[in-house]
Amino acid sequence: MPSPIPPTRLLPKGLFPSAAGGACSSPLGPRTARGGAAPRCCSSFILWEQLRPVEAVGSGGFGSVFRAEYLGKTVALKRVKKSSKNRLASRQSFWAELNVAHLHHNNIVRVIAASTSAPGGSEADSSIGTILMEFVGNRNLQQIIYGTSEPLREERCLRYSADIARGLRYLHAHSLVHLDIKPANVLVSSEEVCKIADFGCSVKLDRARETCADHPHVSLVGGTYTHRAPELLKGEAVSPKADIFSFGITLWQLLTREPPYAGERQRVLYAIVAQDLRPSLRDSAVFGSELGGRLRALLGACWSADALRRPSASELLELLQQLL
């Protein structure tokens, strides 16, 4: 399970010069650093009187996201709510979001501050925690692909995909696997830069092994079944190659603007694992050209049933740059 993080990693001095630390209770246990155990309970301090939600911009299984104003800056405010059906899962989702709190990359949505406390009243009773993040905008790839008539030419698709691959390369270099790469979790800024968001399913890997077999919650909580790698559907160990599989589905959606599968959920899951079901590559308008043939080969590599045969994020980015 993900680990709590020191408040000094949450609060950049330029934006939050007066922040102070406060205690919170984490289900995730201590973390080893420089040979010693880090404190079990860590959090940043949010100045609630300075936080003003402006408008709702989205919601998901474990929370809602708002555009907000904080200390004169526009931020994204995520409230992680308690789940009456699965409280452990919602707690894990909150702490998994903080796996990226110490990371800073242009293609990753940056965490600014987080707290397990909340203002009083019913909101506090229903909330597990609050996360303040960089505000990227209101658009994600899901909306661009399926909700607009904007042209998505190959060059634009490849630029978006290269951004995602850069983000994955950075995450994997820090032994972090996202586990829910899909168009809805890729935000697009006003400068047309893609940023990976929503780390509620993410896990930290053992650097020595680069796999993670001791996360039983992974198969229960995370991810979207249409984008999940077959080894995860079978309950096998997590590795960075699971994100490469999900990337392949996302790239296919960018290129075709179609849903990846049709049919009943359980039948699709069985076919992915037992029959190597993958989205169709027969669209001649997309895959019939020379570039389309190279994209077809790239997707086939990302979708390999054998995770070891999939490219790494670094190799993937190199291939995409060659296509660009």
TrEMBL record:
Domain named Protein kinase: residues: 51-324
Gene3D superfamilies xrefs: Phosphorylase Kinase, domain 1 (3.30.200.20), Transferase(Phosphotransferase) domain 1 (1.10.510.10)
Positions of ATP binding: K82
EC number of this enzyme: 2.7.11.1
GO MF terms held by the record: ATP binding; protein serine/threonine kinase activity
PANTHER family listed in its UniProt record: SERINE/THREONINE-PROTEIN KINASE TNNI3K-RELATED (PTHR44329), V-MOS MOLONEY MURINE SARCOMA VIRAL ONCO HOMOLOG (PTHR44329:SF285)
Protein name per the record: non-specific serine/threonine protein kinase
Species of provenance: Oryzias melastigma
